[in-house]
Amino acid sequence: MTFAHRAIGLAFALLVVLPAGVAAQHGHGAPSVKPPAVKPAKAGPSPKAPASTIGARIAARPQLAAKLTPLLPKGMTLETAANGFRNQGQFIAALHVSKNLGLPFASLKTEMTGADRLSLGKAIQKLRPTADAKTATKQAEKQADDDVKSSDK
């Protein structure tokens, strides 16, 4: 296709489309299409919404909750302890690392859920530089996986 053919095609398209658009602006021609109305979001959680927090999902599984409750710091609930973690596995592994290495769970949680979110391994390195973070992480992740699998039976 030559340049002349393209120019003619463009000119024709402008002649056909432009007058319809101009006419529509003045109340003539094709009817305007209004976008669908958007409903404003409701404030607060819906009463029908299922429990979706990590702590609530664990609490809904009594066998799993029974395994994890002894790992929690004194006076802390599953909901409070799990708040801020990215997923259930990360949370449960952090509980096990805290117990296995004798690290304060609150400190581990702060490192993993704070503004600079560290991985479990990096949080271990920061809090206990002499620990083998890689081995401790693998062990805790296996323990977390075992907890979840055994509570499904």
Describe this protein's structure.
Residues 10-24 and 44-51 have low confidence and may be disordered. The chain is mainly α. It has helices spanning 3-25, 54-59, 62-68, 78-82, 88-101, 105-113, 120-127, 133-151. Helix 5 (88-101) packs across helix 8. It has 2 domains: 1-28; 54-151, no CATH class. It is built from 8 helices and no strands.
**Roughly what is the average pLDDT, rounded to an integer?**
80
Report how far apart the termini are: 69 Å
Segments where pLDDT lies below 50 for 5+ residues? 10-24, 44-51
The figure for the number of domains is 2
Characteristic key phrases:
153 residues; mainly alpha; 0% strand
Write the layout of secondary structure elements.
Layout: H1 3-25, H2 54-59, H3 62-68, H4 78-82, H5 88-101, H6 105-113, H7 120-127, H8 133-151
Helix pairs in contact: 3-8, 5-8, 6-7, 7-8
What's this, in brief?
The protein has helices at residues 3-25, 54-59, 62-68, 78-82, 88-101, 105-113, 120-127, 133-151. It is mainly α.
